[in-house]
Structures are given as structure tokens and as C-alpha cells.
Amino acid sequence: MKLCIFAGTFNPIHNAHLKMAEYVLKNFHFDKVIFIPAYKPPHKNYDPNMSLHRFNMVKLAIMNNPHFEISDIEFKRENKSYTYDTICELYKNYNVDRKINFIIGTDAFEKIESWYRTEDLKKIVDFIVFIRQNETVDFSNLKEKGYNFRFAQMEFINISSTELREKIAQEKPINELVTKEVEEYINKYGLYRN
After folding, report:
1. Which pTM does this prediction carry?
2. Quick count: other Cβ atoms within 10 Å of Cβ 92?
């Protein structure tokens, strides 16, 4: 199985996340994209009450695509989630062709050398780095250090989870930014209202 994973906080998941997953599925010919919401992200503030909500919203957002799947692998740990540990576990659970691929943005990829067990991680995963239109990046130093990656450059969709949360708090419409199911879930539980 050609497998790609999309890990993140997804706070909340929005249409740009889904478009990125659809893009890699189509252009890199994966069998499956697995979404992995972080239970306790290592680099971000963590609200335990939101963890389950974030997980449920991802589940709702991807339910109509048979090539998308959600994993609770990081929820079962209930502690800080490190990519290296997650990837090792996925190799045990799936019959993977070659290497697992990992979707990442340029801002996170720039910091990849600071990640937990990065020297081991680069041996077991290939990265798909999303670059924004007109963004110039040079990761030749990482290539020389043994990080395998390729670039994905889809049409830029200007949505961020931070801006989305702000819109919700200001009671502005979000129906074009998230799926109908996610919007209904946010309204049902009164999320991000401050």
C-alpha cells in the first residue's frame, strides 16, 4: 500500500487541509491518506477538552472520501506525540510499499532538524513539502543531510485555523471554509466562541 500521512493539530480542520490531501492522493498516486490529529502537540499549547472535538471534526470532514482515513494512534498514547514514534507504529500496522510519506509545510520543514529523533526519522519517511505560490525555498542543505522530499505546489488557498477561530469568535460566516458537517459540529458544541 502506498501510504501518506497528514498529521497536525487540525484546530479546526478546514477545506485547505482537505484540498492538500486530495492533491497528494491524485498527483502522487497514494492508495490512502491517513489523518492523524495530535492528542497533545509537542510544540503547541494544549487544551485537553479540545482534543476529542478536534478528532471528531476530522472524522466528519473526511467521511465522504473512501481514500481518507483517521487514526487515533496519538490519542491512545495520551501524552506528547512525536512523529518518529507514530511512524514506527504505522509500519507495524500497515503493509507499506517503500516508505511512508508525510505531508508538511515549508515553515515546519525548516525546523525539521529540531524534531525528536530526526536522524532516525529521515531514514523511515519521505516528505511532501507544500510550498506556497511565489514562495522561494532552498532546502538543498537538508537534501545533502539525507532528508528525502519532493515539493507539492497546488493553488494557494488562504485559510488558516487561527483566522478561522477568529471568524467564529466574531460570529462571521465560515461555510466556505469548512465542510457542512464541521460547521454544524462547531455550532452544536459552541466551539471557539471564547
Report:
1. 0.93
2. 6
